[in-house]
Write a structure and sequence with these properties.
CATH class: Alpha Beta
CATH superfamily: Metal-dependent hydrolases
CATH architecture: Alpha-Beta Barrel
Number of strands: 7
Structural class: alpha/beta
Number of helices: 10
Strand order of the largest sheet: 1-2-3-4-5-6-7
Strand content: 5-15%
CATH topology: TIM Barrel
Order of helices and strands: EHEHEHEHEHEHEHHHH
Largest sheet: 7 strands, parallel
Length: 267
């Protein structure tokens, strides 16, 4: 069982103000059909569709995909944490549209201030939602506070919070004391200076593995951005090729079983 727990699809937004905002431009269509081709070619069983930074709060593309094929896709919605009705919007996407996760983005301008709003986190707990966090190292203290305050909420730190040095890594490793915190050792190209196979990230991966354990690590491709940085196949095989110290049975947990438990079996 292989589960890609971090993939994006979207419809082109021709009016998006910054065409270079992400590796693959928001001005380009990234259809579900393209992702399915890669799934079929590389025998990926399931995918967690994470709403990208555009088009805002319209999660209908990922939600519709998951509703149509619930045994193949799960949807993670974005809700603007600054909006007064954010908890009710989350309820809509979870209850009526079947989304199984919420993505909060303190790394986005203006969203860090509302990241810790308790009514939204309380609603996530009530809904049984998995919260993924797109963060930077400076947001790790806030993540720690929410992990401690809401121990029932499964919390995932996307892309290891883009560690930029030893202090940031130590702050990330400190989150291992909270049993509800998981990490995605993904998107290495965002913080590697060497390129694939990211030799300068090997020590970071090993430290995360030793601190969190395989049971709290989750793989994702970061499709479609990985296509322009390494390719889907090389991204899929990175752990096997570069981090051979992880036993095969534990690698299977990271590559599929952990996400399967969070987004499918628990339901």
């Amino acid at each position: 069982m292989i589960v890609d727990a971090h993939a994006h699809v979207w419809k082109a937004d021709r009016k998006f103000p910054d065409p270079s905002a992400t590796i693959v431009s928001p001005l380009s269509d990234i259809p579900l059909s393209l992702l399915k081709q890669y799934m079929d070619e590389y025998l990926v069983d399931r995918v967690v569709l994470v709403q990208p930074m555009y088009p805002g709060e319209d999660n209908s593309l990922v939600a519709d995909a998951a509703l149509a094929e619930p045994d193949r896709f799960a949807a993670v919605a974005v809700v603007d944490s600054r909006a007064p009705n954010a908890p009710d919007r989350l309820s809509f996407w979870a209850k009526e549209q079947g989304c199984r996760g919420l993505r909060l983005r303190p790394s986005f301008p203006g969203e860090a201030e509302s990241f810790e709003r308790t009514d939204l986190w309380t609603r996530a707990r009530e809904l049984g939602i998995v919260v993924s966090v797109l963060a930077r190292p400076e947001h790790l203290p806030a993540i720690a506070r929410m992990a401690e305050r809401y121990p029932e909420v499964p919390l995932i730190v996307d892309h290891l919070a883009h560690p930029d040095g030893p202090p940031a890594l130590q702050a990330l490793l400190g989150l291992a004391r909270f049993p509800n915190v998981r990490v995605k050792p993904t998107g290495f190209y965002y913080y590697s200076k060497t390129g694939y196979p990211y030799d300068d990230c090997a020590a970071t991966f090993k430290a995360v593995y030793e601190k969190f354990g395989a049971g709290r690590m989750i793989w994702g491709s970061d499709f479609p951005h990985c296509l322009l940085k390494a390719g889907y196949g090389r991204t899929l095989r990175l752990y096997e090729r570069r981090f051979g110290f992880v036993p095969a049975h534990e690698r299977e947990r990271i590559m599929g079983a952990n996400a399967l438990e969070l987004y499918w079996r628990a339901r």
